[in-house]
Amino acid sequence: MSATDQERQNEQQRVETVITEISNRITDLEQQVQVVSEDIVGIRKHFWDDVTVNFEDATEAIETYVSIKQQAEVLSERERSQRHAQNQLRTMQRLMHSPYFGRIDFHEETEPGSERIYLGIASLLDKNDEHFLIYDWRAPISSLYYDYSPGPAHYDTPSGVVSGKITCKRQYIIRDGQLLHMFDTGVTIGDELLQEVLGKQADSQMKSIVATIQRDQNRIIRNEKSRLLIVSGAAGSGKTSAALQRVAYLLYRYRKTLTAEQIVLFSPNSLFNSYISTVLPELGEENMQQTTFQEYAQHRLGDSFSLENSLEQMEYVLTAHDEPDYEARLAAIRCKSSAPFLRVMNQYADRLMRGGIVFRPISFRQGTLISAAHIQELFYSHDTSLPIPNRMALVARALLAEVKQLERRERSKPWVEDEVQLLDKDAYVAAYQQLRRKKQFRDDSFDDFDREQELLAKRVVKQHFQPVRDSIASLQFIDIQATYRQMYADQALLDQLLSDEPSLSSAAWPAICSLTLECLDQGKLTQEDIPPYLYLQERLEGKQTNNLVRHVFLDEAQDYSAFQFALIKNLFPRAKMTVLGDWNQAIYAHAAHDESFGTVSSLFEPEETETFVLTKSYRSTLPIVRFTKQLVAGGEQIEPFNRDGRMPTVTKVHSDAELTQQIVERVKKLSANGHKTIAVITKTAAEAEKAHQSLAALLPIRLITTSTLSYDTGNLVIPSYLAKGVEFDAVILYDASAKSYSRESERKLFYTACTRAMHELHLYYRDAKTFLLDHVSASSYEHLETDN
Ligand SMILES: Nc1ncnc2c1ncn2[C@@H]1O[C@H](COP(=O)(O)OP(=O)(O)OP(=O)(O)O)[C@@H](O)[C@H]1O
Fold it and tell me: Does 359 score more than 50 pLDDT?
């Protein structure tokens, strides 16, 4: 037996020993869960047997309370033990399948010999609880595995830096207790393992990458210093993966103080949410909160407006070129989302401190109770240096006091008497009882009938005034809509506000204004108006904050506007932010002129900010990356991971019927070659529907729309902007014709669609291919043409 065979046998033996240990642990834990469950059932069943219930006097009642509390505590302690044992059991079951994936032998400077450190998705101690059979990949010592090749190395611990030397670094593929492969590895975490992982078929769910995290990704995952972490990375460079492993890392590192509810991830859409939702549970952690900016806007504004969502806006931008307002709308999207417009909005809000806020009168029973002019006077009588929200709170307080007076006066009005007559029996009984109680207390005599009428009148008026009081408390006397509208209705005001921002000067402003006014008057808020509107609302009402959340992740951050960054920062004042994005995938029209994370970094101090760049792309094969990197400026910096595969194809067809037939044949061939998820990517939703209609007659294929919440492996038709962030075994670009992609502004969308492909990429066009392919060298794809 050669030395390596012997080594392998030893390793297989160790796997078996560890698996036996895990299996013993599972048996113990199952028994523990069983015993605790029986305890819980028993306690619940006999809960009242051990409690003495006696409410005869205060002392007895307190004793009863204490006795119930004690019993409840015993129960909740048992329930906690049950949860703990169940969690441990689940972890052991996960380890059973593949106990570890890596090993390093580390010789610590101050120690005589080296220690073998095996890394897995959770820690496991030997049966005496003395030595680690497996270290959690997030333990401080495990960082050596990701950061160093054999040779000198060190790692940070809470008590200082530990230095030494790595003498061996090894990777394993263990499945169902069998050691399938092992490799000794040098500089990076081995290509062999990455080849194996990346060569697999796409899934409808993202997978964890703990076994193959790369050094530059590890830096992002373990960063604890920065308030703002910016990750800018090429398509497929592992930004989303790094973000999710980072969540898992933080939950481990701060397990005593941080819970999954204190972490929020903003993602582009609900489909993406579902795509990434299995990574953390796979690692034994609970999922963080997931949301979208649209959900937040809906929560804040959904009652006042019908809100356009970002995908509707996108579909408009891509399809409505012939509409008369198109250019004005595009200009509105660009201007209103920009950092200079954020300054304009701030300037407007500053002016409003001195005058111009529009107020709503407070009405009562079809009349005006307090006029808007009076509220305005009240507001502007306060010191103008006080922030607006503080002054609003003072106004609300004053208004509530006024309302109290008015309420008192109202009681003698005839309508009140009429309503009192109409009250039902219950109200009278309640009033009678209340009177009796009071009579008892005061021990005086009075005219019962008058008192009763008075009480009932008070009750009626109070009930009617409740909505008034509520509306004052929630500051509804501020007419935010009208104040926002005023900016676009008063041309002179807007000109003044824009005068300091030359980059916003545009001949389109009159058209932008009339478009905005038209939408507002119809109760609609366009996607580009939502963030500035919310921003103004905050400046007037005060910020809504969530102090619980400690970490906020923004994925696909290139799609966020200056306002959105500011709003999210304000919303989570105690959170650290991790912002991940790729400017080459900035598909929304608003991002076109703002190609940096300058806006978000300006929200934090420079010393609180760190930026990381990921240039290596893992998703696609080498031929696909060679092709896609030529589609965008700066693409030469993208480094492909060396995974072989088929060259992309670009096929010319001569008719729609031929296009359908070619795609059907292609999908069938791809399926026959073992590809599980094959996506036909169209530019727009309208085109997706059309493509689906013709393909579905000949193939099983699913249409993905904005309302699809999750998708399975299989054949699908999907609009480009919904495919953001996800990946497929093979991508078929439905229509790469000159007619379809005719604008420079569509370059990033085109690039985003092509970069979704893991193993194969096929493009089709009619007549002439899009100019976006002009600078792609002919040697990086195969050109095909059907016989005419
Ligand atoms: N270290 C790694 N080991 C194994 N797979 C990796 C690694 N890094 C990235 N990947 C794989 O590469 C693919 C792309 O990763 P991910 O989606 O995280 O990239 P991204 O930068 O968010 O991409 P995009 O911006 O295009 O949406 C995924 O299949 C992921 O599992």
Answer: yes
Q: What is the ipTM of this complex?
A: 0.99
Cβ–ligand 1 distance for 727 under 6 Å, the answer yes
Which residue's CA is the closest to the ligand 1 atom numbered 16?
Answer: 238
Nearest residue (by CA) to ligand 1, atom 5, is: 209
The count of C-alpha atoms lying within 13 angstroms of the C-alpha of 681, restricted to the half-sphere facing its C-beta, is 27
Question: Residue 110: pLDDT above 90?
Answer: no
Which element (helix H / strand E) includes 292?
A: none
Return all residues near 708 (Cβ < 8 A) that are at least 6 apart: 271, 722
Residue 120 is labelled as binding a ligand: no
CATH topology of domain 215-303+546-616: Rossmann fold (3.40.50)
Q: Is 355 annotated as a binding residue?
A: no
Residue in 707, 702, 564 with CA at minimum distance from that of residue 269: 707
Residue 440 has pLDDT above 60, yes or no: no
Averaged pLDDT of the chain: 89
Residue 591: phi and psi, rounded to 5, are -80, -15
Separation CA 601–CA 176 (nearest Å): 47
Give CA–CA dist 328/511, Å, rounded.
6
Determine whether the annotation assigns residue 236 to a binding site: yes
Question: Position of tokens 């297989």?
Answer: 12
User: Is residue 91 in contact with ligand 1, taking CB distance under 6 Å?
Assistant: no
Tokens 């010999």: give the residue: 113
Which residue has its alpha carbon closest to ligand 1 atom 27? 725
State if residue 237 touches ligand 1 by the CB under 6 angstroms criterion: yes
Q: Residue 651 pairs with which residues in a beta bridge?
A: 764, 784
Task: Tell me the fold of 622-785.
Answer: Rossmann fold (3.40.50)
Question: Do the domains 622-785 and 215-303+546-616 match in fold?
Answer: yes
Cα(540) to centroid of ligand 1, in Å?
Answer: 42
CA of 198 from ligand 1 middle (Å) equals 9
216-268 confidence digits (pLDDT tens)? 999 999 999 899 999 999 999 999 999 999 999 999 999 999 999 999 999 98
The answer on whether 237 is annotated among ligand-binding residues is yes
Per-residue DSSP letters for 39-98?
HHHHHHHTTTTT-----SSHHHHHHHHHHHHHHHHHHHHHHHHHHHHHHHHHHHHHHHH-
pLDDT in tens, 508-537: 899 999 999 999 999 999 999 999 999 999
For strand 115-120 and strand 102-108, is the pairing parallel, antiparallel, or unpaired? antiparallel
The alpha carbon torsion through 557, 558, 563, 567 (nearest 10 deg) reads 0
The DSSP result for 531-575, as a single string, is HHHHHHHHHHH-----SS--EEEETTGGG--HHHHHHHHHH-TT-
Pairing of strands 263-266, 306-307: unpaired
Measured in angstroms, how far is the CA atom of residue 222 from the centroid of ligand 1? 17
Residue nearest to atom 29 of ligand 1 (CA): 619
Q: Are 758 and 728 in contact (CB under 8 A)?
A: yes
Q: Where are the domains of the chain?
A: 3-204, 215-303+546-616, 362-474, 622-785
Output 237 or 384, whichever has higher pLDDT.
237
Tell me the CA–centroid distance for residue 726 and ligand 1, in Å: 9
Residue type, 503: S
Asked whether 619 and 612 are in contact (CB, 8 A), the reply is no
**Span from the CA of 431 to the centroid of ligand 1 (angstroms):** 69
